[in-house]
């Protein structure tokens, strides 16, 4: 049996039974390294790739085979058998993907005796060994984390921001409510003189029909105007995806980014659609969607990082002008479908904040701005902590 190692020894490793490998990527391990193996054509030869898409580090186990190539489930980047990225749909059909967009492939992958064998690096043995009764595949190793820092749901910096925790009308006069935020349980109580929160927080407030809690002194600001016209809240959703990753997935393409204090705006235009996006750190998103010939709708999405593995999604849609109930319902269903579609594949425990950990292309301007905004939040929160420590020391 091949043992697990962080640095693979040269050689061949049995990674899967050949009969178990079809056109769906199978995660495998070879000498402690993670790979996916698959056939790019039914019954064709086996191909192996590094396990994450270089774009947003999505696992390729959710990728599909299209036209003899691997298509990432994230944003549709395509990869040929040699790992070369052949298409980035957001850049258009004639764009040349950057070299960093390519997947890594092993030195060799081969079938023998009903097994798929993988040699990560050049080895003196040109062919895999014969399989025996004791041939087994090693366990699939965990995927390596990004090299730089990531922002997860329990990042200490998130204490220095306002977070939505409940719909305001859930908290009746004299009533109380328990909510989760940043891995802790908080109790809200509506009293005659306002809302009390325990344990003590820097602040609690009502805004946009929600109750918000700021555990520490906020270093981020709020969105500006958040919509006009008839509005409808969607039923709240829970997802296991970290809030920063979820927000990144919601952004979509964008250009013409303008940085704001604690956030940014950006636009995206096609022949039949104009979208203006605004983000306020950490997890407030507002989108004004103007379809050609249709009513303008505003989509507000507020994310509540409840626990390390749980994010609550609060979303509201409003429609401009004289709208009918069916108009509003259609807009709500559209947003609900967009939110429910997210969360497709494991993208790790948080959002990488270092640009070199991922591959950004021109249409990723919103995603790049989100990373910068969140990295700035981390720095500002650290500075605030330091100032508070200094104040305590000086007192
Ligand atoms: S195309 Fe793979 S994550 Fe974007």
From TrEMBL:
InterPro entries: Cholesterol_7-desaturase, Rieske_2Fe-2S, Rieske_2Fe-2S_sf. SUPFAM superfamilies: ISP domain. Keywords: 2Fe-2S, Iron, Iron-sulfur, Metal-binding. Signal peptide: none annotated. The keyword 4Fe-4S does not apply. Residues 12-118 form the Rieske domain. The keyword NADP does not apply. This is Rieske 2Fe-2S domain-containing protein. It comes from Klenkia sesuvii. The lineage of its organism: Bacteria, Bacillati, Actinomycetota, Actinomycetes, Geodermatophilales.
